[in-house]
Amino acid sequence: AARDFRLDRWTGQPFYIELWVEKAALAGVLWPIADAYHVVLMVNRGYSSASAMKESADRIRARCAPRGPHERPVVLYVGDHDPSGEDMVRDVRERLVEFGVPDWLDVRKVALTMAQIEEYKPPPNPAKMSDARAAAYVAKHGTSSWEVDALPPDALDVLLRRTINSYVDKDKMDAQGTRENVIKARLQMLAAHASLQEV
């Protein structure tokens, strides 16, 4: 119990953050970040079903109720730079709001962006012209698309930690971590005392 005990790091924070990723292949890269900051990691796999979106909306709404602990929900989105990937921010936000998440929800695509493509120069792929969103994408970005998993993992790690930190009141989060360690120490002392009594 002491080993697994955790306090919510976002208690007292002005934002509630979730990290969503388009591809399951990146979950292993993103999990250490989500775990370190106590944020939900949601593997979206493209356009999610209505039931998956409702479940996510219920979770976010519960954390951001009018008298809840957080003032504003934020979804940080990691996805490909292609017709569907660029449309996903709109889709995620509209569907979560449709299922009752407050309208001040912010869905922010943190990767892959054109600035990151220009910096890291991942290999291009032809944009999928069969995608219903292809015409608008090509008009804005041209006929190439890029996969987010081509971004160097260490660069993605730094980017996401920097982004999450921009939403964090570090003093409050550190204080919550200190409280967690105190409680863990007490639990360990109780466990040791109980073991001695059994002997």
Explain what this protein looks like in three dimensions.
The protein has 199 residues and is an alpha/beta fold. The mean pLDDT is 88. The longest helix has 29 residues, at 170-198. It has helices at residues 27-37, 50-63, 83-98, 114-120, 134-141, 153-165, 170-198, and strands at residues 15-21, 40-43, 72-78, 106-111, 125-126, 144-145. The protein has a four-stranded parallel sheet, with helices on both faces. It contains seven helices and six strands, in the order E-H-E-H-E-H-E-H-E-H-E-H-H.
Largest sheet: 4 strands, parallel
- Based on CA atoms alone, the radius of gyration comes out at 20 Å
- The ordered string of helix (H) and strand (E) elements is EHEHEHEHEHEHH
Q: Could you tell me how far the N terminus lies from the C terminus, measured between alpha carbons in angstroms?
A: 21 Å
Shape designation? elongated
- Helix % is 40-55%
**Total helical segments:** 7
Strand order of the largest sheet: 2-1-3-4
Average pLDDT score: 88
Q: Report the count of strand segments.
A: 6
Sheet/helix structural class:
alpha/beta
Unreliable stretches covering 5 or more consecutive residues: none
Assess the beta-strand content as a share of residues: 5-15%
